[in-house]
């Protein structure tokens, strides 16, 4: 990236597009709208390598031209995908990519097909009243949080590049515009199925289901009832995904069916947030006034979204409606227990339990209740428990997180008698707990500070520091301790915005 535009080598991307070869009614073909003065803000070289993109000798200017959409990469077949979706429980029959363009698909070094999509790349036939653009703030936010989620081990879409457009976008005020390059296992959503199902286009639903099976669930190609198996597989991945979110205190904020990826990746980082003090009712999104997407409600919403997905598959599950409904309900009923299982096994790891006992769930809930009542910081409590697992003499730093430390002491007595029945040596246990309990999460106040510095002063140093710290969330990092601490009262961020 040191070379100038004149000496740049062209970037070769081996596109291998499949979505673009579905029938025309699945998308609208169009090029991204050109931007005035694209400038590369950030490029994810590690992800590029994972995708098999060789960017050596490709100049920053050339990357800016390509990842703004100003120049079309050979082999790209740009398109905006159509989809529908339930937004806050209300069905919208036609949404679609209003500000995103899928450039195409590549096979990564592991052979997995990945979408490369520009977000903020201009108006499309699905833009409705929107400008098709994105402000730099939400773009930085998505970059930081999606990459942090990846480093935390949570399935997620990734961020490959940020390009400043050199143009302004108008929200409540004038803001610098930017384009994010997003990488996803695919961009097919529950809402994509809903779009066709709502129009009674059962041929398209079947094509889409077969596409998804081929791409994400090839093992069920030969299943006896492939569409029931597809539903089960998607539900299983959602159960695992939501459990991962719960383990790191993540609140997605806008779990609409159009933001539920069939691949099981976290997608759409609009008003998302990680909580500081533990509160099951935590909501940050300014538009989620009823708390529909509150932290503790996420498993229920995932279940609801899966029910909407199942509805789209009914005709494929069985030609007799009653039988199809029976099959769907039976499959859907597996979600709750699956989620509980993923949740509990992750919580056991967080508490240093490597065997399973019946009372473990109650032990976990006992801790969470105490944390809630005593406003203990979610991330710090679990991180400090890694040390405390070594014995009562290491309790001070956990106790300090509880308004009334006696609540912790009472729980810790039970925890210690449970730990006594574990055979792993204490040092190995603490080490293993450190890999289940991050020291660093993208704290809202840190994100806001980084975004503010970038927007107001074009200063990206905080953004770079955040990315660096969050790339190794399970390691203590000397000199960056302050990124692990909870916000002071005046720093607390209580609301997030979609920023669209
Ligand atoms: P989101 O809230 O990001 O999930 O977006 C919901 C829907 O609104 C999607 O169809 C988006 O493509 C569309 N949308 C969001 N922001 C814009 C924008 N600035 N211009 C056009 N469409 C948008
Ligand atoms: Mg969305």
Question: Can you describe this structure in just a few lines?
Answer:
This protein has about 500 residues and is α+β, with helices and mostly antiparallel strands.
- Biggest sheet features: 6 strands, antiparallel
From the N-terminal CA to the C-terminal CA, the straight-line distance is 31 Å
Count of alpha/pi helices: 16
Q: Tell me the series of helices and strands, N- to C-terminal.
A: EEHHEEEEEEHEEHHHEEHHHHHHHHHH
* Number of structural domains: 4
Proportion of residues in helical segments: 40-55%
Q: Count every beta strand, where a strand is a DSSP E run of 2 or more residues.
A: 12
As residue ranges, the low-confidence spans are 1-5
Question: What global shape is seen?
Answer: globular
What are the bound molecules?
adenosine monophosphate, magnesium ion
Report the C-alpha radius of gyration, rounded.
23 Å
> What is the overall pLDDT average?
96
Strand content: 5-15%
Return the structural class: alpha+beta
List keywords for this structure.
500 residues, binds adenosine monophosphate, globular, binds magnesium ion, six-stranded antiparallel β-sheet, 12 strands, alpha+beta
Ordered list of secondary-structure elements with their pairings:
Layout: E1 27-29, E2 39-43, H1 45-50, H2 60-66, E3 79-81, E4 85-87, E5 90-92, E6 100-107, E7 113-119, E8 134-135, H3 136-152, E9 158-170, E10 174-184, H4 190-198, H5 202-216, H6 226-248, E11 250-251, E12 273-274, H7 298-317, H8 321-332, H9 335-351, H10 360-373, H11 378-388, H12 396-399, H13 405-419, H14 426-434, H15 444-457, H16 461-470
Antiparallel strand pairs: 1-3, 2-9, 4-5, 6-7, 7-10, 8-10, 9-10, 11-12
Helix pairs in contact: 3-15, 3-16, 4-5, 4-7, 5-7, 6-7, 6-8, 6-9, 7-8, 10-13, 11-14, 15-16
Bound molecules: adenosine monophosphate and magnesium ion.
């Amino acid at each position: 990236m040191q070379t100038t535009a004149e000496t740049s080598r062209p970037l070769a991307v081996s596109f291998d597009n499949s979505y673009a070869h579905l029938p025309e009614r699945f998308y609208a073909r169009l090029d991204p709208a050109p931007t005035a003065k694209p400038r590369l803000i950030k490029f994810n070289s590690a992800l590029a390598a994972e995708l098999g993109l060789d960017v050596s000798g490709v100049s920053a200017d050339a990357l800016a031209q390509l990842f703004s959409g100003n120049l079309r990469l050979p082999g790209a077949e740009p398109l905006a995908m159509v989809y529908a979706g339930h937004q806050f429980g209300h069905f919208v029959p036609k949404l679609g990519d209003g500000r995103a363009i899928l450039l195409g698909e590549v096979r990564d070094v592991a052979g997995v097909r990945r979408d490369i999509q520009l977000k903020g790349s201009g108006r499309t036939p699905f833009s409705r009243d929107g400008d098709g653009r994105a402000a730099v703030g939400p773009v930085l936010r998505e970059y930081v949080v999606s990459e942090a989620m990846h480093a935390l081990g949570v399935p997620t879409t990734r961020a490959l590049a940020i390009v400043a457009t050199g143009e302004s976008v108008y929200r409540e005020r004038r803001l610098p515009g930017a384009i994010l390059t997003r990488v996803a296992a695919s961009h097919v959503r529950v809402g994509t199925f809903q779009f066709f199902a709502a129009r009674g286009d059962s041929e398209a639903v079947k094509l889409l289901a077969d596409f998804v099976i081929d791409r994400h669930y090839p093992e069920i190609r030969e299943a006896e009832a492939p569409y029931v198996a597809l539903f089960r597989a998607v539900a299983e991945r959602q159960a695992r995904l939501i459990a991962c979110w719960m383990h790191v205190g993540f609140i997605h904020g806008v779990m609409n069916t159009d933001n539920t990826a069939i691949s099981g990746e976290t997608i759409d980082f609009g008003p998302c947030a990680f909580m500081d003090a533990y509160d099951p009712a935590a909501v940050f999104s300014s538009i989620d006034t009823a708390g529909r997407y509150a932290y503790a409600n996420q498993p229920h919403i995932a279940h609801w979204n899966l029910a909407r997905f199942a509805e789209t598959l009914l005709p494929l599950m069985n030609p007799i409606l009653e039988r199809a409904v029976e099959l769907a309900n039976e499959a859907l009923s597996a979600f709750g227990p699956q989620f509980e299982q993923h949740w509990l096994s992750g919580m056991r790891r967080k508490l240093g339990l490597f065997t399973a006992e019946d009372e473990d769930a109650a032990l976990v809930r006992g801790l969470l209740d105490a944390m809630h009542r005593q406003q203990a910081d979610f991330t710090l409590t679990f991180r400090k428990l890694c040390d405390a697992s070594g014995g009562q003499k290491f309790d001070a730093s956990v106790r300090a997180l509880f308004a009334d430390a006696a609540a912790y002491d009472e729980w810790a007595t039970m925890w210690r008698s449970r730990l006594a029945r574990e055979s792993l040596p204490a040092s190995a246990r603490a080490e293993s707990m450190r890999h289940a309990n991050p020291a660093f999460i993208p704290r809202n106040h840190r994100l806001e500070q980084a975004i503010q510095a970038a927007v107001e002063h074009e200063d990206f140093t905080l953004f770079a520091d955040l990315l660096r710290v969050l790339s190794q969330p399970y390691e203590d990092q000397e000199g960056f301790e302050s990124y692990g601490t909870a916000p002071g009262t005046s720093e607390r961020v209580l609301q997030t915005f979609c920023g669209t």
